[in-house]
Design brief:
The complex is a heterotrimer of chains A (551), B (536) and C (368). Chain A is an all-alpha fold and 551 residues long. Chain A has helices spanning 2-17, 19-35, 39-58, 61-65, 74-90, 95-123, 128-154, 176-200, 207-223, 263-287, 294-310, 314-320, 327-352, 360-375, 379-387, 392-409, 412-422, 424-429, 434-460, 471-481, 491-516, 522-550; strands at residues 247-249, 324-326, 389-391, 462-464. A two-stranded antiparallel ribbon of chain A has the order 1-4. In chain A, strands 2-3 form a two-stranded antiparallel ribbon. In chain A, helix 21 (491-516) crosses helix 22 (522-550). Chain A is globular, with a radius of gyration of 26 Å. The longest helix of chain B has 18 residues, at 461-478. Chain B is built from 19 helices and 24 strands. A six-stranded mixed beta sheet of chain B has the order 6-9-10-3-11-12, with helices on both faces. A six-stranded mixed beta sheet of chain B has the order 18-21-22-15-23-24. Chain B has four domains: 1-87 and 180-259, P-loop containing nucleotide triphosphate hydrolases (Rossmann fold), CATH 3.40.50; 95-178, no CATH class; 281-355 and 448-536, P-loop containing nucleotide triphosphate hydrolases (Rossmann fold), CATH 3.40.50; 365-446, no CATH class. The longest helix of chain C is centred in the middle third of the chain and has 33 residues, at 107-139. In chain C, strand 2 (202-204) and strand 3 (207-209) form a beta hairpin. Chain C has one domain (20-358): ABC transporter involved in vitamin B12 uptake, BtuC. In chain C, helix 11 (231-241) crosses helix 13 (253-279) and helix 14 crosses helix 16 (341-361). The chains are: A mainly alpha (551), B alpha/beta (536), C mainly alpha (368).
Chain lengths: 551, 536, 368
Amino acid sequence: MNKNTNLIKRITQMIFDSKVTILFLLLFISAAIISGKSLTFIIPELFTRIARNGFLILSLIIPILAGMGLNFGIVIGAMAAQISLFITIYWGLTGISGFLITALLALPIAAFLGTLVGRLFNQMKGSEMIGGLVLGYFADGFYWLLFLFVFGGVIALDNSKLMIASDASAYNPVSINTAVRCVAVFCLALTLLLAAVRKAKHLAVPVKTLAVKCGLAVFVLVLTFIPQLEPFLSHSTVTNGIGVKNSIDLMGIYKYALDTVPMIKIAEYGFYIYIIIRLVSLVMKMIYRQKINWKSIVIKTAIVCGAYALTFIPAVDEFMRRDKVYLITVVDVLLPFTFGWQAAKWFNARFIEKKSWNWHRAVLPVAGAAVVYLVSFIPAVYKAFQLTQIPVMTYLCIGGVCLLNNGLMKTKLGQDMRTVGQDRTVANAAGIDVDKTRIIAMVFSTVLAAWGQLIYLQNLGTMQTFGHTMVAQYAIAALLVGGASVNKATNRQALLGVFLFHALFVVAAPAIKVLLGGDAGAIEEYFRAFVSYGVIALALALHAWKKKAAK
Amino acid sequence: MEKTEYVLKMDNIAKQYYGNRVLKGVDLSIKPGEIHALMGENGAGKSTLMNILFGMPVIHSTGGFEGTVEIMGQPANIDSPTKAMEYGIGMVHQEFMLIPGFTVAENIKIGREITTPNLLSRIIGPTLETLDFEAMSRDARKALKTIGLQIEDYIKVAGLPVGYMQFIEIAREIDKTGIKLLVFDEPTAVLAESEAERLLEAMRVIADQGIAIIFITHRLDEVMAVADSMTVLRDGEFVARKEVKDTSVVDIAELMIGRKVEKLVEEEYEDNRVLSDENVAIQLRDYKVDMQGERVRGIDLDIRRGEILGIGGLAGQGKLGIPNGIMGLYPAAGTVTVNGQVLNLDKLGEALRHKIAFVSEDRRGVGLLLEESIEQNIVFSALQTNDRFMKKVVWMQFYDHKSASRHANDMIGQLDIRCRSSRQSVGRLSGGNQQKVCLARALTLEPEILFVSEPTRGIDIGAKKLVLELLTKLNRETGMTIIIVSSELVELRSIADRIAIVSDGRLACILKPDDSDANFGLAMSGAWKKGGEEES
Amino acid sequence: MTESITNSRVFKGLAKFGLPRIIIAAFFLLLLFGTAVLDLGVTSALGNCISRWGMYGILALAMVPSVQCGVGLNFGISLGITTGLLGGLISIQLDIANNPALVAISPTFAVLAAFLAAILMACFFAAVLGYFYGLLLNQVKGSEMTVTTYIGFSMIAFMNIMWTVLPFKSGTLIYPNAGRGIRNQVSLDSSYKGAISNILKFKIGSMTVSTGLILFFLFMCLIVWLFMRSKTGLAMSAVGANPMFARAAGINTNKMRLIGTMFSTVLAAVGIITYSQEYGFFQMYNAPQMMGFISAAAVLIGGASPKRATIFNVLLGTFLFQGIMALGLPVANQLFPGTSLSEILRILISNGIILYALAQTKGGSSRE
C-alpha cells in the first residue's frame, strides 16, 4: 500500500516538476499536427537549429551553478563576438582559419567584458537577473556608439562592403593607430591617477596589479609603432563611410566555415593533439615524480593509433572527406557505438584501473540508443532521418562544451563555484573568495557565449549587426523549457530545451498560417516573443514563489 | 604549583566597546581533553570572550583587547579566524554552516577539498586540480566513525534530522588537522532530549581523544552530567572556576545571579491599587507562539489588572515570543482572553483594538520608521487604529499636521526626548531617545494594557531610570496594566509586582522580587523542578 | 581646508544626491548652453522640454505608488499601458468625438468627452488587470523587479497578437486594403488629439506651452499627493518602508501592496492616454516595451531609490531626463549629422541610472 502511494507521489512530483517541458511538448505536438507539415520538413530543420543554437544555450549553465541565476548578460558575449567578427572581416580573413582567428580574438574581448560584468554583479548580489537585463540594454548603447559612430566616424575605416556610404567630409576621423595610442595613454594615465588617489587616502596600493596594468598599456602602445602591423592599423584618414551596415553577408567569408570542416581534418588534428597532450602529460608526471600507469597509457594510445590507422583505408578515407553525416547513419551507428562505449568503460574499470563499475548506469544510454534505433524503422521517420545532415565539427563543439561543463565541476574551481552558488555565507566562512569565484564564472559564460554566437552566425550566413537583442531571451527561454530553473541546470536539460524550443518554432509558423489563413507575417514573430517572455516570466514567478514559501 | 600544560590559558582579558566595559579581567584555563563549561547570564561576556578567542574582526576593528592568550604554553596572537584555525581551535556554531544540497562528505570537506594535480592545473593554476572524491570520502567516514554517527557519507544533508546535522558540523571540525580545542555554543538548544544525550556522549568521546572542549550552555543539568570543570562569568567579571565534582546546581545558580543591591527606582509613588486574582486583564491558556528563536511551547498565565508583571528568562527561551504573538507579529495558537473576550490571534490588529499597546524589543527593525520624523512615528499607530490626527475635508480624511505636531511636542516634553524638533528624522536619534519615541507612540494609543519588551536595552543609566519611573508612574496614576519583558533581572526586581520566569518556551515559575537569587538562577536554568508555582 | 569643504552641508547633500545624478544635471545645463551657442532656438527648445515633461510625467508618476508600497520599481507598467491603449482604442472605435449629439453641444466638448471616455474605460480595465497583477506580486515578494519586467514583456507580446486579431472595424484603426490588424501608429487626428493639450494653449515667441497638459499633469500629481496623506496612503508608505512596523500597527501588508499596484497600473493607463493625445498618435505593438525603464529612470534621476519615491522625484527627474532628450536631438544633429546619437543617449542614460540604483542596494557585503 505504502509503496504504491509513494510511487504515485513520486511520479506526480516528477510531472509537476517538469510541467514547463510537458506543456511545451503538448504545444509542439498540437502545432505540428495543425501545421500539417511532415517529419521530412521538421526534422532536418530542427537539427540545423540545434547545431546553430546549442552552444550558446550551454553557456548559460555555469552561472546558474555559481548562484548567479539566469545570465541575461550573455548578450555581451554576443557583442564581443560581433566586434571580433567585424575586425577579422575588415582584415580580409576568410574560411576556417579566419574563423578560428576570430574565435581567438573574441576570447580576450569577451573575457575582459566578462570580468566587468562579474564585478558589476558582485555589487548587486540578489538582483543579478534584472541587472543583467538592464546591463544588456546599456551595453547596447555602447555597441551602437561603436558601430554607428566610432567605426568610420572616429576611426577611419576603408571598406565599402562593410560601411554605410556617406559624406565623410563633415569631419576628420582619426586612424586606428592614433585611436589605439590615445586609448593606451588614457588607460595608463587613469591607472596611475587612481593609484595616486589611493596613496593620498592612505589606502593600500596593489603594486602587482598596477604593474601589470601599466605594462599592458605600454605594450599595446609599443605595438602601434611596429611597422609590420601597419596594414592592420592603417594610417590613412580616408574613410568610406560612417557606421557599419545593418547586415553583413558572410557568404564566401565565414558562411558554414565551421560546418564544412571535413571529418578527415578533425581526425588528423585530433590525433596530433592527443599525441602531444599524452607526451606533455607524461613529461610532467616524470618531473613531478607522480605514479605513471603505463598499462593504461599504452592500451589507450594503441587504440587511438589503431583508430587513426583505420582512416587510411580508402573506403573510410572517402567517407571521412565529407563534412556532414546523414542522421540515419548516426542512428544506425549509435546503438553499437553506445554498447561498445559502455563495454570499453567496463573493460577499463575491470582490467586497467581496477575499480568498481556500476552497470546500472549503462542501462539507460544503451536502452535509449536502442529505442531511437527502433523508432527509425518507422517509414516517415526513416525518410526524415535520411534527409537530415549533421555537420560533424559543429556537433563536436557542442559535445565539447558539455564535457567542459562537466569537467569543470570536477575541479576545485568548479566545487568552489557550486559552494558559492549554494550558500555564500558558508562559502565565505570556509575560506573561498566569493567575489573572485563569481567573476570567473561570468568570464567562462561570456567567452562561451561569444563562441556560441560565432557558431550561430556562421551557420546563419548573415550578420545582423544590430540583431542580437533577443539572444539572451531566446537562449534562456530554451534552457527553461528543457526543465532547468534559476538555480539548477544540466547539460541534458539544455539539449532537451534546444530541441523542444526550436521544434515548436519550426512548426509554429506554418501552424499559425493554417489557423489564421493567409500570411502569418508579424504574428509569428510576436508569438515567438510571447512564448519566450512567457516561459521566462513563468519560471521567474515560480522560482520567486518557491523562495518565498521556503522562508 | 606543578607545571600543568594548559591547552588554552586566557589571562586577565578585558575588552571595551566605545567606553563600555564588557569584559573586566576574565581568566580562562583549559587542560587538554577537558570538558569545560562556560556559564553566565546574557550579557555576562561569554560571546565577547569567544570572539576574542576566534580573532573575529569585530574585536580588532574596535580597539583590540587587553590580556594574554597562551596556546599549549606558547603566547598566541590570534587576529583572524584563519589564524585561530591554524592554532587548532574549532567552533561548532548554533546556526549550522552546512549546505543542504551537498553530500555529507562534501560538507565535511568544504573549502578543504582534497585534489590531485592534472595537466591543466600545472599550466594554469591549482584551482583546476581534480577533486579526489575517494580520498574525501575516506576522511569523512573516519570523522563520522570517531563521533559515532552511522550515516553514509554520500547522502545529501538536506532533510536530515537536526541532531545529525550537528554531528556533521562536529565531524567537519575534527576532520581539520591539528584540532586541539573545540567550542560548542549552546549546542543542545535546538536538539530533542534524546539527541542532546547523544551529543553529550559524543563530547565525551572527543574529549577522551585529547581534544579539549569549551561548552557554552545555561543548562545546569547538562553541565553536571558531562563537564569536568566550569567558569562562571557575571557582568563581564570572572566569578569563579570550579571543578564540577566540587559543586552543585544550586551553587552554580547562585553564582550566576549574584547579589545586586542597587535599586533603580527611587521615587515612591502612592500605591492605591487593589490587585486580586479574580480581576484578570489577560488570561493565557496553552498559549504557543511560533517565533524564530523565541518559541513559546505552551504557557498558562493570568495577568492581574493594574499590576506590573515582569517576564524574565534567558535569551532564546521564549519570553520575547509572548507579546509578539499577542500583537499578531508572529503566528500564535491557544486561547488568549482579554477582559473576558477571546482574542482572535489570526486577525491583524485585534490586540490594538482591545486597547493593548506594544513597545517592541527590536527598536530599529519593528519599532520605528527610521526615515520618518519623530512626529509621524509618534502618531502613527493612533492614527491608524483610533483615527486620531486626521482632518476631515469633504468626505475624505487627511493627515492633520497641526494637531499631530502639538501632540508630538507634548510627548517630547513629557518623556524628555532630546531632539532638534519634532520634524527631525528618527534614525538620527540616540538609542535612548529612539526608545522614548516608541514608548510615546504606544502611549498615544491610550492603552489599558501595555507590553514593553526590553525597555532599557542599549540605554544609558539616566534614561533607564527615567523610563522605569515613567512606567511606574503610569501604573500608579492611571491603573494601566504593564507587562515588562526583560532579560535584566535587576530592573524587573525593581518595579515588578511579580516576575514570571520563562524557560524552554514554558513557564518555569512565578517569583516575587525579593525571592532568593538561587531560585531565580534555578528557574532560568531550566533546573526548576516544580512549574508554575509561586514561592513566597 | 579640504576638510571644511567636505564636511559642509552642501557637499554632504551633493554626495547623497549621487555622482551620476549630478553628472546628468550638469549635462542638461551643458545642452542648454549648447543650444544657445549653436543658435538653435532656446525658447522653442524649452517649450519642447515642457511639453515632454507633461507628456511623460504621469507615466513616471505611476512609479510612486508601487515603490512606496514596497513592490519597488514597477517595470511592468506595460500592463497599465496596454489597458490604457485598449480603452483609448475603444473610444475611437465608438467614435465618441464625432457623435452628433455631443458635437451639437460643442466640438471641443465632444473631443473632451471622447478623451474622458477613453480614460474611464482605461481606468476600469487597468484596475481589474492591476488587481490580478497585485495578487501575483504578493506571491513573489523579494523578486518583484525581475518578475514585473517579464510579465510586462509577455503582456506586450500577447497584446501584439491581440492587436492583430481583435475585431476593430474603424478605418482609422485598421490597415486599409484589408490588411491585418491595427496599424502601427493610430492617428488621433479625427478623435481626441490635443483634447487637453489645446486647453489654454498659448505661444510666447516660438515657445508653445500646452497649459492644459501641464495642468492635468499637476492635477494628477495632486491626487497622488492627497492619497499619500490619507490614512490608507500613510499605511501604504509604512508597508513599503518597514513591513514589520506596519504589521505591528495592525496594517494588512498584502492589502496595501495590492492597492499600490492597482493605483500604479491605473496611473500608467491614464499616463499613456495623456501622452498620446499630445503626441497625436497611439504607438502600438512594441513601442511601450521600454516605457517601464524610461519611467523608472526618470524617477531615479529625480533622486528616488527602489525603496522610496516622492512626487518631487517625479517632477525633477522627468524634467531633467526628457529635457536632455528634447535638447539632445537638435544639438546632436547639428554636431554629428546623420547619426542616431540621441537614441544612443537615451539608452545609455536610462539604463545607466537604473544600473547605478541597483548597484547601490549592494545585496550582501563583499565578504558574503
